[in-house]
Amino acid sequence: MNETKTIFILGGTGFVGRALTEKYLKNNWRVIISTRAKNLEEAKSQLFLHNFDKNFFEKSFSNNFLLFAFAVDLADEKWSQIDIWTQLLKTINASPLSILRVANLVGETSKSADEILRSNVNTLEGIFTLVRYIKNQNRGSLFVNIGSPVEKRYNKRPSPYEHAKEVSRQQIEKSKLCDFHFVAHYIKGKGEQKMKSTALILWSKLKFSQKWLFGFKVGVVDVDDLAEIIHHLLEEIKIPVRGQKPVEVNVTNGELIFGEIIRNLLPEDKQSIPKAIIPARLEGLFLWLYSVIVPILKPNDQFARRLTNFAKRGLVTHKKWDETEIFKTAEDIKKLATNNDYEVLVRSPNLIVLSKRLPVIYVLKEKNQEELKRVVRKALAT
After folding, report:
1. What is the C-alpha separation between 55 and 301, in angstroms, rounded?
2. What's the predicted TM-score (pTM) here?
3. In which band, very low, low, confident or very high, does the pLDDT at 280 lie, cut at 50, 70 and 90?
4. Residue 200: partners with Cβ closer than 8 Å, 6 or more residues away
5. In Å, what is the CA distance from 134 to each residue of 87, 144, 276?
6. Helix axes 40-49 and 54-62, enclosed angle (nearest 10)
7. How much of the chain exceeds pLDDT 70, in percent?
8. What distance in Å separates the CA atoms of residue 315 and residue 343, rounded to the nearest whole number?
9. pLDDT digits over 288-314, tens only?
10. Is 191 left (phi over 0), alpha (psi -120 to 50) or beta?
11. Following CA atoms 43, 49, 50, 53 in sequence, which dihedral angle do they give, to the nearest 10 degrees?
């Protein structure tokens, strides 16, 4: 048991978890998955929902290369107790000496603002307890956090979800336990189809604003590409850690216009743009009124606030928007490759660029527009 390299994936039955689990299993790692699922059948159904290969699952499970820790709800404060983790590892017969990687993919599951923040805080306390224990047992182990970027807003009040992500990131850095923080603008998959469920509503908003409301670029990452990049950086290139500050790795396949993504989520007979469009000369005034009035009329409606944020993006000039550096576009990363402040680690098949001054890496696995559209369709296929 101790001779087999092991990765402990927190939240491994999810959209990204499925891809990361498959990638490490195919490279002969033992994978431990913690999940809120209460039994094997429930965990299997979640993995199969995200297109885990069924034959590969049975082979990995029967060979004892795929282990499950069931009923692990990290929002429960009990997981901040080290005895709970040590007992769990004994129960599944997993030696902490063999665990070389801990990957965190756990997201919030609560609804209210207070619950979202509280669940994030409790979750991280439990994760930190596990990571400290593993790192004390095995000095060569790494803690990898994987998530989406915190969306910078121009109003002072971020959504509860964005605020929770921001607080979580601050806690992760403050803990000095995280070695790598992967930031990916991926399209969320089955089980997280909020975007798909609201696509028709979003698309209908084009009758108010065709040019700006959905005219900004959104980074897209294929989930299997993300898993491949994580494995490549950690296990093949073996990027060294940078002391107590996590190495931030920003990943993109390229960009689509947000409106194109929404259109790709709709049935073909629903993809025509609504005809009632605000004239270009009045569009700026409309967006300003929309961004001011909607928060007053619907202060607690997160979906309305998201639309408001889209409207505010439309009011920001391209130059000012670029300066906020929400994410590096494919063209930006290519330019960094010729900048003396950056070092090119790999050019093919991924362009991997390392900042010489900060622990920040940009990874581009470029796809053309049609490939990116297929990524969106695949990620949200029913």
Report:
1. 44
2. 0.86
3. confident
4. 266, 270
5. 13, 13, 59
6. 140
7. 86
8. 35
9. 888 889 888 888 776 777 778 777 776
10. left
11. 80
